[in-house]
């Protein structure tokens, strides 16, 4: 299974993010995975404990958000939901579509412990909407 | 927005406990492989070599296709092969017997080739002496589709005994194909239940407009469609790169 190889790539990326922020530990990893990425989130989750053992990511929570399958129809110029093996327009049924979402394999963010750098994200108390 | 139930909390702005920090990355998980694949493509382009990644289930006829292709192109395009196999050198031996330069990659337990393995192999070949470099991927309809090798074209083989619904069952692979070959068509009389039009329709349902060709490496039927597709590919690549047409095409 190639999920172990992908898990390895994930841990390499996470490790380098942790290192460049001077963090001691990674407690959470957020991923976006579309069903057309060719990666099974369950298999990835199974491979994770083995691949992460002894790294900064050991014990981290792996949080996978499944991306929706969406296609764009050239003739209708509209986007619609689709199934992985029926990537046709939801309005007119035409197969000449472009995939707009569904093949993501993305490391969205990580939660770092004891990071030495300033958080790049705005803190909620600085947000005037709160 | 509600401040108490957490429904407005996004990964970017979570109020984390002291010492914790959410860091946005937004990186492709296969970035390292993809960078290596781009580097491989630079090598192929630098030598004007069309690289073709052959993918299929085990035994769909990839090696047999290459053997038949080598024979047909004897005084046409110059071809080379990178063979991916779990364990044996058998396929490489078969290709070598056709007088075609070949490098074997034994992947061991890995069920797919990646861009680094292909890079190591391509440096063992003299790309200046080639027009087309085939990469025979590990027989597997799932894993190889996720890894860019730096190829210019993906070819997916679907053999007659496998059944016509494979594109619907393995959409990731068949969606990525630039050409779909329906192979072992000499077996069609024994397997009338394989409906080529149905197979083609399943490919279209994936939003894929790739040409679909029927052939048999054994009888030779349909092979000229395949070899002319290759020749067009080489001509197109060389034209894009501003190179003169190859002597063999
Ligand atoms: N009847 C018939 N048999 C074929 C044809 N092409 C291949 N075969 C047979 O199918 C079997 C597998 O062919 P290979 O070329 O080794 O298939 P492969 O895809 O390279 O297999 P792996 O590398 O193991 O994944 C062999 O016994 C071939 O002789 C064909 O066009 N017609
Ligand atoms: Mg083979
Ligand atoms: Zn439409
Ligand atoms: Zn190189």
Would you write up a description of this structure?
The complex is a heterodimer of chains A (about 130) and B (about 250). The radius of gyration of chain A is 19 Å and the shape is elongated. Chain A is about 25% helix and about 30% strand. Chain A has about 130 residues and is of the alpha+beta class. Chain A starts with a helix and ends in a 17-residue tail after the last strand. Residues about 120-130 of chain A have low confidence and may be disordered. Chain A is built from two helices and six strands, in the order αβαβββββ. A three-stranded mixed β-sheet of chain A has the order 2-1-6, with helices on one face. In chain A, strands 4-3-5 form a three-stranded antiparallel β-sheet, with no helix packed on it. With about 250 residues, chain B is of the alpha/beta class. Helix content of chain B is about 30%, strand content about 20%. Chain B has eight helices and eight strands; from the N terminus they run βαβαβαβαββααβαβα. In chain B, strand 3 (about 80-85), helix 3 (about 90-95) and strand 4 form a beta-alpha-beta unit. In chain B, helix 1 packs parallel to helix 4. Chain B is globular. Residues about 1-15 of chain B have low confidence and may be disordered. The chains are: A alpha+beta (about 130), B alpha/beta (about 250). At the A-B interface, helix 1, strand 1, strand 5 and strand 6 of A face strand 1, helix 1, helix 5 and helix 6 of B. Magnesium ion (MG) binds near residues 62, 63, 91 and 136 of chain B.
């Amino acid at each position: 299974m190639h999920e172990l190889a992908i898990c390895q790539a994930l841990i390499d990326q996470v490790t380098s993010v942790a290192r460049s922020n001077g963090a001691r530990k990674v407690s959470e990893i957020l991923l976006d995975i579309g069903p057309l990425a060719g990666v099974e989130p369950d298999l990835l989750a199974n491979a994770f404990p083995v691949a992460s053992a002894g790294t900064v990511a050991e014990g981290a929570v792996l949080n996978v958000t499944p991306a929706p399958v969406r296609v764009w129809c050239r003739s209708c110029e509209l986007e619609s939901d689709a199934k992985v093996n029926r990537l046709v327009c939801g309005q007119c049924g035409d197969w000449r579509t472009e995939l707009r979402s569904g093949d993501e394999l993305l490391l969205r963010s990580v939660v770092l412990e004891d990071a030495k750098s300033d958080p790049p994200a705005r803190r909620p108390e600085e947000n005037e909407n709160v | 927005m509600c401040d108490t139930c957490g429904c407005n909390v996004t990964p970017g702005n979570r109020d984390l406990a002291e010492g914790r920090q959410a860091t946005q990355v937004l990186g492709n998980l296969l970035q390292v492989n993809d960078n290596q694949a781009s580097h491989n493509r630079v090598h192929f382009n630098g030598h004007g070599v069309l690289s073709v990644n052959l993918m299929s289930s085990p035994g769909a006829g990839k090696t047999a296709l290459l053997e038949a292709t080598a024979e047909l192109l004897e005084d046409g395009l110059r071809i080379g092969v990178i063979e991916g196999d779990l364990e044996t050198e058998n396929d490489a031996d078969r290709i070598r017997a056709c007088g075609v330069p070949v490098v074997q990659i034994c992947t061991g337990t890995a069920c797919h080739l990646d861009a680094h393995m292909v890079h190591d192999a391509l440096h063992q070949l003299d790309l200046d002496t080639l027009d087309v470099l085939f990469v025979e991927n590990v027989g597997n309809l799932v894993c190889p589709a996720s890894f860019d090798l730096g190829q210019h074209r993906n070819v997916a083989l679907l053999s007659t005994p496998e059944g016509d619904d494979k594109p619907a069952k393995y959409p990731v692979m068949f969606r990525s194909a630039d050409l779909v070959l329906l192979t072992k068509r000499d077996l069609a009389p024994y397997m009338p239940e394989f409906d080529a039009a149905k197979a083609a329709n399943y490919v279209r349902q994936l939003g894929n407009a790739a040409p679909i060709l029927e052939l048999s490496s054994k009888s030779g039927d349909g092979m000229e469609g395949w070899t002319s597709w290759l020749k067009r590919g080489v001509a197109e690549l060389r034209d894009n790169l501003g190179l003169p047409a190859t002597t063999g095409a």
